[in-house]
Amino acid sequence: MKDQFIERLYEYSKEPYQKYFKKNKPWEINKAELMDYPENSLGYKLGSFLYQHHFDIQPKLEDHDIIHVLTDTGISVTEEIGMQFYLFGNGKKSLYLFMVMVSGTIFYPKKINYFFEQYKKGKQAHPFYYLDFSKMLLMPVTDIKKTFKI
Questions:
Q1: Which of 86, 111, 113, 141 could link 122 by a cystine bridge, Cβ 3.0 to 4.6 Å?
Q2: In this structure, what DSSP letter does residue 41 have?
Q3: Taking Cα atoms as reference points, which of 134, 124, 117 lies closest to residue 57?
């Protein structure tokens, strides 16, 4: 029940967030094209992630799924919240991130240790949340992870 409520909040907030807060341009690529990238590349891994979870590319929110790929984060509600804690540890700050962290702490107090572990992992990695991943799609994921200690 909590998970469904949180997922609905996300669905309702996604469009205004894309429209009013995300200033970047949508990537001009689709998930089928991502599958043409080399198998070890960020682009291919993103395409695989999207197909595996039956997702499509969300305009202006492409980086979100890239973070899933780079951090090996699942898609459950608590994992999504944990990923925001990871990003906070990595240096990212946004109103949306804080809202997710606060609501996650309130709705999932028993997961606070998991959230804190994710925060510490993000803190240990070199800052990467701000990168323009659209220019890195040909790079091997292993190289990116090694370079940024992800």
A1: 86
A2: B
A3: 134
**Predicted confidence pLDDT, tens digits, the chain (150 residues):** 777 777 776 666 666 565 655 567 878 999 999 999 999 999 999 999 999 999 999 887 899 999 999 999 999 999 999 999 999 999 999 888 998 999 999 999 999 999 999 999 999 999 999 999 999 999 999 999 999 999
What is the amino acid identity at position 139? M
Number of domain units in the chain: 1
List residues bridging with 140 in a β-sheet.
41
Q: Rounded to whole angstroms, how far apart are CA atoms 13 and 64?
A: 15
DSSP reduced 3-state for 140: strand
Structure tokens at 50: 């999207």
Report the pLDDT value the prediction gives residue 13, as an integer from 0 to 100. 66
Q: Measure CA 125 to chain center.
A: 15
Beta bridge partners of 41: 140
Residue 80 tokens, joined = 């999504």
Full residue range of the structural domain in which residue 78 is found: 2-19+28-148
- Give, in degrees to the nearest 5, the angle at Cα 16 between 103 and 132: 90
